[in-house]
Design brief:
- With 99 residues, this protein is α+β, with helices and mostly antiparallel strands.
- It has a domain of 64 residues: Alpha-Beta Plaits, CATH 3.30.70.20.
- Helix content is 10%, strand content 18%.
- It is built from two helices and four strands; from the N terminus they run βαββαβ.
- A two-stranded antiparallel sheet has the order 1-4. A two-stranded antiparallel sheet has the order 2-3.
- The longest helix is centred in the middle third of the chain and has 5 residues.
- The protein is elongated, with a radius of gyration of 17 Å.
Length: 99
Amino acid sequence: MNRPPVTKYIKPKHIKDYPVGPSFRAGYLTSDNSGWRTVRPIIDQDLCIGCQQCYLCCPEGVIYPKEGKVDIDYDFCKGCGICGKICNHKAIQFIKENK
């Protein structure tokens, strides 16, 4: 997967510690992004044929190919449901999010 790692942002303590230009170095994510998800997609690996239609249609890019099938990065999945709608083999089901 090509997603950058989640890196904790440390607030500068002195004016000299603030960067000149962007407030954080490019290529880092400062927090995960799945806090408002109400349903979680679950891939049934027995039903998945590896067509990767869900991978191609995911607006967040959280579905990725893995060993001829697909997997989901739940730290950034928003539970939009597009992957479940696009899957013709009904390999993606949604369960209520338990936090």
